[in-house]
TrEMBL record:
The lineage of its organism: Eukaryota, Metazoa, Chordata, Craniata, Vertebrata. Catalyzes the transfer of the acyl group of long-chain fatty acid-CoA conjugates onto carnitine, an essential step for the mitochondrial uptake of long-chain fatty acids and their subsequent beta-oxidation in the mitochondrion. Coiled coil: none annotated. GO terms for molecular function: carnitine O-palmitoyltransferase activity. This is Carnitine O-palmitoyltransferase 1, muscle isoform.
Amino acid sequence: MAEAHQAVAFQFTVTPDGIDFHLSREALKNIYLSGITSWRKRLIRFKNGVLTGVYPASPSSWLIVVIAIMSTMYARIDPSMGMIDCIKKTLPVNGYLAVQTQTVLSAMLFATGLWVSLILVLRYILKMLLSYHGWMFEPHGRMSRTTKIWATLVKMFSGRRPLLYSFQASLPRLPVPGVDDTIKRYLESVRPLLDDEQYNRMESLANEFKNDPAPKLQKYLILKSWWATNYVSDWWEEYIYLRGRSPIMVNSNFYAMDLLYVTPTHRQAARAGNAVHAMLIYRRKLDREEHSPRSVNSKHIQCFKRNELDRVSLKWTQCGCSLNVSVDKDFIQHLKDSKHMVVYHKGRFYKVWLHHGGRHLQPYELEMQFQKILDDKTEPQPGELKLAALTAGERIPWARARVKFFSRGINKASLDTIEKAAIFMTLDEEEQGYDKEKLRSIDSYAKSLLHGKCYNRWFDKSFNLIAYKNGKLGINAEHSWADAPIVGHMWEFVLSTDHFQLGYTEEGHSKGEMNKMLSPPSKLQWDIPQECQDITESSYKMAKVIADDVDFHGCLFDDFGKGLIKKCRTSPDAFIQIALQLAHFRDKGEFCLTYEASMTRLFREGRTETVRSCTIESTAFVHAMENPDKTGKEVEVVDFEFYAVQLKLVETVKYILS
């Protein structure tokens, strides 16, 4: 209780002798520092907003244009061709200003208009340049003259030191494909899967669709593309993720693993402390737009920015997000400047503050907070142990339970604390990770990250940080707010910062000193009636059936990597897709519709598109590989090394499939 009393800035008590007033200087200092930090954030956001708003120009360029226009005026040259005089005549303050002042003001207004026009022209040129996608089709290791010129022009028009959001207004919109092109691509994707009779029937149906409803639907789609930033992403988000009423555990949420071969420390609290601190650093960099825009494909082409990263990063800048469930659909709740996290351990939920005195908690301070949770021997409250199973089961029962049992009182307050937390973390009781001495250790690790015990992950949070007993980490991420590359960028930063920058002491503890003024973690309070406990148990049983139905087997393939594939002058992705087709055919004796996710990063608010890798060409390659009468040249194998490499991978994939 001592820390709690010290956290109060002032307190007074009424006694027979009068009022006893106590003032805490330390608490007042913390309040002052928090205020300074808040105003500093606002100033940084305002500055970045100005820089992004005038990109690819800079605010200083406005002064250059003004000085240039003023210089021409003094040289008795009128670059405005009479526009400055027109502005001067229409000024509403002509009667109050001297003639010279009117001239200067008119020249400044004209220079500002010219400056804004130049910005718009530069943005349009940059947008046209970013609409070029010819670099995708360049052979590996070579670049055409056209692409080299294009890369030079993009670098020239991209300005200096773009911020995270600088390219947002310059990215082209996703184009609407033509009806003929769409039907042609569809027929090509189904041709390898159908015999001649089935294909002719499908071709007939496609032509009927092309003649009747397709033209009208195409007009609606084009109309939407005119007023929507991206005519696909909002529908994708709503109808793929938010309107689904089936469990999001396993079906939607995905996971990310820790480094397989490296464990910096085996102390659970210390590893969690470093990871959380690294996430806070990442969030601060996003808030200040210090992360550089993402580039693609070539080190010579450093101009592409993924607007989807911007949009999702903005949500992360607002301190994470959470799904708010309802009967009809879910809603993504965006937050702003959340300063606490929630920790789950052995059926108990704890609130942990992430800031103190206007700064982030240091790694060792976080470690001590988490260690207090690990050392707590109290039992879960009735209904608390499996409460998170509500987020693992069907969405409608969870929505109805939320309205009935979590819309008022302490339950609402505790649920708000979870949903408005910047980070949700589970201090897991298990030991996981890759162990070459243990059979199927990766399988157990992956299943734990994917679904856990079905009640020790809050699946509605943007992501769950999972810290295992032996110091390994992992993430379970909700899918609606972002795709895997977004989480991957953050996770890569966290792991590298943890290992290379923060580090640990010789005893395995996080570095830093403990602040005794910190408020300890506080347990969330619940009042869960028996009816709600029954719904929770029902959701848990359904989720358990889904989890038990997951058959996962991971295999570490270290015979070769992408470097050897590139030496064969082949795309690593295409290599893997062909190997999957060949392995599946050898295992099943047939082909199937194959989905490979691709990202529409080069377009504004782009998310995910589909690549159908089971193509006429890939199936022809597989048939040729299976035909003993075909030579290597007829199979279009580059050389013997490529053939041997692919066979090795095919056998590995076939082993996994079987």
